[in-house]
Structures are given as C-alpha cells and as structure tokens.
Specification:
Length: 435
Amino acid sequence: MTILLCAACLFAQQVPSSPILIQNVTVIDCADDAVQPDMSVLISGDRIAIVAPASQVKAPQNTQIIDGHDKYLIPGLWNMHVHLGNYSDGKAALLKFLVGGITGLRDMGSPLDDILRLRRETSNGTILGPQMVVAGPIIQGPLPFQMPVFISANDIAAARDTVNMLQRRGVDFIKVQDAIPRDIYEAVATQSRTDHIPFVGHIPPTVLPEEASNAGQHSVEHFGGRFWGVLIGMSSRESELHADEVQMYRDILASLEQKQAPPLTNMRSAFTKAIVDSYSPQRAERLIELFRKNDTWQCPTLVVLHTLWADKEAKYIPEDLLWADRLLRKEAEVASMMQKAGIGLLAGTDLPPDSKSGTLQDELAYMVDAGLTPMQALQAATCNAAKFLGKLNDVGSIQRGKLADLVLLNANPLENIRNTERITVVISRGRMVPR
C-alpha cells in the first residue's frame, strides 16, 4: 500500500503531456443510450479531443495507444453518497475509489476543514482522487453530544447562522439528517433558498415527504432514512405512522440524554409491518408525481439498506428480519416506479470503498434487480449525476470537449451490469490511474 500511495503522489503531480488514443473500442455514451462499436477516442490534456469511427482517426505523434478491441468504454462513475471522514482516512479512501472506476464523489457529511482540504487538493492535483462535491458537517437539531461530522443547531437562529457559515466556507450543498425538529428543518430550508445553496438529506421523522419536497429539498437519501419517510408518505395510515415516528424520535433523544442505548422501535416488525401492509398504490403515485413536479431526486443507496439489520447486538428476532426483507423489496419496487415516472435516480453506497458490505457496482446490480435496465443503472452513476450537479458540460458522457474521466471494461456492462467490475483502465482528467 505504501508503494501504491507513493506512486499515486508522484502521479498526481504530473501534468498530462502526450495524448492518449483508445482505438477500436465500443463506446457506451450513457447520455443518449448510444452504443458505438469500432470507435476511437483521443484524449489531449485533460479533455476528450475526438470521438469518431476508428477508420477516421490517426494517432498524433508521441501518442500513447490503448487497444480497445473487445473492450467497452464508459464515462467515469460517480458515487453520490459517501463519507470520507477525516483528512488521513479520506486521502487513503480517495485512491481506492478511483481505482474502482469512481471518478466523482459527493461527500455527504465529514469534518469541515478536512473535507474542504481534500476537495482542494484533489482539484489542484496535490493528491490523486476523484472530483468532489461536499456538504461539510451535517446539520442536526439539539443533541446531548458533539461530533466533528455534526453541527447541532439549538434553535432557528442557530440553524440559519449555520447555513450561512457553511455557505461562506464554500461547501457545495447543505445536508440535514434525522435528529432535527420541524422548526429547525424549516429554518435550514428557508436559509438555503435565501443563500441559493441546495439542501439535501434524509426526511427527518418530524417532516412529511411531501413537505420536504415542497420545501425544495433537492435529493432524498435512502428513501428518507431509517424512519422510512418515503414509504410512510405512500401509506394509507400516513398520519398515524407519522405520529409514531415523531414519538420514536423523542424517545431516542431521551435515551441519549440519559446515556442509554436508544430503542430500535423504528427497526422492529411492529413498525415495518404496518408500513408495508398499509402501502397505497394511489398515494404512491401521488407522491411520485409531486417529486417529479418539484424535481426532487432520489439516492436510494439500496446496498447499504441491506446492511441495516446486520447488527448482532440489536438482537433482531425472525419476525423483525422477515418484515425487513419485505420492506426492502417494497423500496426496490418504488425505485423502479420512480424510474418509469421520470424521477431522477442517483447511485450511491454510503459505504467505504473497500467495504465488504458492497461497492458502487453492487448498488448498480441492486438497481437492475429492482427493475432498471443496465443502461438506466449506468446513467444513475454517470449522466444523471452530472445533470443533478449541473456539470453536464464537463462530465457524465463521452463527448468531445468533456473531461477525460473514463473507465475501460473487459466486458459489456449492458449484457451484465456486473461487468462494471471488470476494469482494465481508469482515466481521470486525462491521466491513467496506476493500478
């Protein structure tokens, strides 16, 4: 690992000099479902200079040539939900993400100074890593403890001041999580609109999903989080279940204040069974249409949702696990419905790059299992991410003038999405990543 990091440090300081030509490759553009065989892609500096039939492209002098015969070129992948953590942990994780074909990251909550430094150093080439957009610390409500990854806003004024501070420090967006009272959530939403900075995150148990969408929340993570906000919004018992989740939130805070383990009522079968059994197709259709109208994107993170009941200390009983499985299947069904309805879906993991629980490629596989096509799953990690971030002019597809963030695969991902794991070359901003 030390040798790899040293090579990466030297590599990060190099400026691309000679052009790179990928010859006779099948290009999977993602932007328009295009599959183009027998193509050549010429990279000059950090940009794509030519995308054309191989017969029409001649290699300039001193060009490094990559044989793309029987290989498939896709845009670099974006993992739209990660937590890099402190500087040293994040620096190590960045290279691992990049080697895995991840050329872009959305960090959803890390210590402020550390994550801003990581973004700056990957941007200027001091260290090797994916492009980054970052939230800084997550805004919560009053909490009886402190952590660098959270900022506790104790009242409305503090919430507005926190948004202002983060905006001034240069974060790309604001994130909210579960432990936030309704009035503080509304203050964050209002101040984010005033400061013209997007806000994203969970659907707190104190807020309904339609309220979050109408407030301008730009993306919903994990279908709302561990209080299952999106599915509660699709329930015929929404009012009753919403009152239950508010009480659960209060009970958790009370336990934390007494330094006791919080209850896991939100993970037990009594609650999850009620959510699944009361699912209403009509209410689901209505909520999905509201998300579409308000451009409320979804980052399902299906891969991490499958880890939530793995904690042995929680002592889940078989009934808990039975209804957990049914709830997860319902969320996969909802993901497919959202895709068909035109809701923007993003691919994210909420996991480290070397996690045994899953990778971005596993997330893409879960999306396909849910009913998306392999192309739609790829788009969630490429052109959808670019559109959501306002970066379509630079990334998300394989077109002339765009950044040369590319992944060369040994097999066709449209035949089997798992072929996104069969990486032979990763190119980040025009430079081949050392493997």
